[in-house]
Amino acid sequence: MKASELAALIGAELNGEDVEISSFSSIENISEGSLVAILGNKIPEDIYSSSAAAFLAKKGADVPAGKTYLFADDAELALVAAVNALYPKKHRDGVNPAAYVADSAIICENVFVDAFAYIGSRAKIGEGTEIHAGAVIGEDVEIGSGCIVYPNATIYDGCRLKDRVIVHSSAVIGGDGFGYYQKHGRNVKIPHIGSVILENDVEIGSGSCVDRGKFDNTVVGEGTKIDNQVQVAHNVKLGKHNILTGQAAIAGSSTTGDYVMIGARAGVSDHVNICSKVMLAAMAGVMSDIDKPGIYAGIPVTSRKGWMREIAYVRDLPNIVKRIKDLEKDKDA
């Protein structure tokens, strides 16, 4: 692809020769004829003498002359567009004969269903959606357009995925919530008759679980991205454009606002409400409502500044103990 063509596709300004660009490379592993993004603060000078064909940079960047550059106002978004242009996704369609599709299922145009996928009764699969090998789509499931359900993912009965939702391998959407009454010395399972709704542009990572609601629906808000091995329990309501990273867990009936970021292995207790624009550090523990935007850390959580002060005190405990003992000796002397 010519640099001028790529620049037009990604909304960048070409500066230099109209070279041929065949691939995209990282700074650490540059291949001949590739485009390299120079977006960081510390760019090795030797990359400009490499075999890269061109460089992607933010407009106004201080770069050496004599090379081919694609300058963009938003270089990060231009990078995403460039990679998509250089590595276009190949969409397949058609139903593999080895797949099972119930007679009452509705399959729209340009849908791909791979071998050994299962699509249950009255399921609806929207235009351009891909159902990969071994995926299970339960009865009465509704999947919108442009979705991808990767191999061996499971969508339980009655769940709804809106448009452009991605569910990665081995994720489970709509399994029973973990709810029991302890009666007469035994655990009595509470029926869960709610469902799961994944709004537009949601992505669910491999091995993650989003449980169905007890009586109401579990909802994952528009644009929210969930990493691998994350647990979202019954009746949880996640806001728009949240990010949940690996092994985070949110207990039942908790809610988040918009633009909430939850770090790896952080936990949120049940019936907790978290307002918008909150960031939870890795391994944070939330046991009560958070009603003020900010960065929180620790168990139970406190402000980042407060948590760092606590850690500093804990690490200084040997010195504190020594000082106390010295004071006691002076007192007894």
From TrEMBL:
UniProt entry keywords in alphabetical sequence: Acyltransferase, Lipid A biosynthesis, Lipid biosynthesis, Lipid metabolism, Repeat, Transferase
Coiled-coil segments on the chain, per record: none
Pathways per UniProt: Bacterial outer membrane biogenesis; LPS lipid A biosynthesis
GO cellular component: membrane
Family matches, as CDD domains: LbH_LpxD
PANTHER family assigned to the protein according to its UniProt record, in alphabetical order: UDP-3-O-ACYLGLUCOSAMINE N-ACYLTRANSFERASE (PTHR43378), UDP-3-O-ACYLGLUCOSAMINE N-ACYLTRANSFERASE 1, MITOCHONDRIAL-RELATED (PTHR43378:SF2)
Reported function: Catalyzes the N-acylation of UDP-3-O-acylglucosamine using 3-hydroxyacyl-ACP as the acyl donor. Is involved in the biosynthesis of lipid A, a phosphorylated glycolipid that anchors the lipopolysaccharide to the outer membrane of the cell.
Name by which UniProt lists this protein: UDP-3-O-acylglucosamine N-acyltransferase
Gene symbol of the encoding locus: lpxD
